[in-house]
Amino acid sequence: MPNLLRFPAEWESQSAVLLAWPHEGTDWADRLAGVERTYVALVTAITRFQSALVCVAGTALRERAVGLLTAAGATMERVRFFEVDYDDTWLRDSGPITLREGDGFRLLDFHFTAWGGKFEAGLDDQVVAKLHASGLLATATHQRIDFALEGGGIETDGAGTLLSTWRCLHERHPGLERGQVTATLEGALVQSRTLWLDHGYLEGDDTDAHIDTLARFAAPDAIVYQACDDPADGHYAELQAMAAEIAALRTADGQPYRLFPLPWAQPVLDEGRRLAASYANFLIINGAVLMPAYGDVADAAAAAVLARAFPGREIVQIDCRPLIWQNGSLHCVTMQLPEGLLA
């Protein structure tokens, strides 16, 4: 019998995008107004194209989010809320990784350790199970997997190829050989092969080089990646080495990938600390690509690259300068839910 499990690509049809609204009990407390503006812009943009499922920590926060979104002109009939407690808002990493399972779905619930125990994650590690129990998701089963993995650490082409960085997975599982990690990922995620990158990092990134800040599939035969063309920049050698690795990769049928290098933004500093301003941290939704913007002259050039990589989709820029203060960007705070999953 054919395997009924499949890990869909991000560009496949979606029912919603999952997010968690920032509040004073999260690390956003000191800069809440700024990050709320980004969330308002993000949810407003999402609801132009599809639904948003927004986690809120209580009724008061829900009412606040409703007020802000309504004032901004979000399509509120496309906004649904789920009340749940959470430590932080990085749902790309603590949210469900969804497989299609015949006519239904399987929610993979990997152990979320807050990037190797860097922060408290006890509440975040329960979000997937609570979401499954809520009844908001149709025909979905729940599978807990006692293996540390974040959604930002993996990319799939929807056809059985996984892309990841060895630095991140090795940090999570230092006692395992590459072959052991590969076998675990391919077994759980129903992948036939894994492409590993050994180079690539961003200052200000505390995820140990998540792939979604570095390189992304745009199609089964196309990869968009963060480039650096400034020899004076500290990232130059590493990102040039990563670009060479990507150029050497081949599709499942042995062909080179079509490559789309993204421009390099000028350093974004916060009290002397460089922040991880990656254009690769975009989100694909129905009919559009939501792109992180940083108030840089390279924003427009990055949008042009994404327009070539995703023909037929609108490119929508979201100001993500407030997000990178906490070391992540647009893709990091979102998780797509495949078409048919939201009840």
Describe the structure.
The chain is α/β, with parallel strands linked by helices. The protein has one domain (5-338): L-arginine/glycine Amidinotransferase, Chain A. The chain has 10 helices and 19 strands. A 4-stranded mixed beta sheet has the order 1-5-6-7, covered by helices on one side. Strands 4-3-2-19 form a 4-stranded mixed beta sheet. A 3-stranded mixed beta sheet has the order 8-9-10, with helices on both faces. Helix 8 (236-248) links the parallel strand 12 and strand 13 (258-262). The longest helix is centred in the N-terminal third of the chain and has 15 residues, at 32-46. The chain is globular and about 50 Å long.
Describe this structure in a few short sentences.
The chain is of the alpha/beta class and 343 residues long. It is built from ten helices and 19 strands. The protein has a single domain, classed as L-arginine/glycine Amidinotransferase, Chain A, CATH 3.75.10.
How are strands sequenced across the largest beta sheet?
1-5-6-7
Distance between the termini: 29 Å
The figure for the number of domains is: 1
Structural class label: alpha/beta
CATH class: Alpha Beta
Binned strand content = 25-35%
The radius of gyration is 19 Å
CATH superfamily annotation: L-arginine/glycine Amidinotransferase, Chain A
Question: Helical proportion?
Answer: 25-40%
Topology as a string of helices (H) and strands (E): EEHEHEHEEHHEEEHHEEEHEEEEEHEHE
What's the architecture, going by CATH?
5-stranded Propeller
Largest sheet: 4 strands, mixed
What overall form do the CA principal axes indicate? globular
- The mean pLDDT is 97
CATH level 3 topology: L-arginine/glycine Amidinotransferase, Chain A
Number of strands: 19
Low-confidence region ranges: none
What oligomeric state is this?
single chain
Give the helix tally.
10
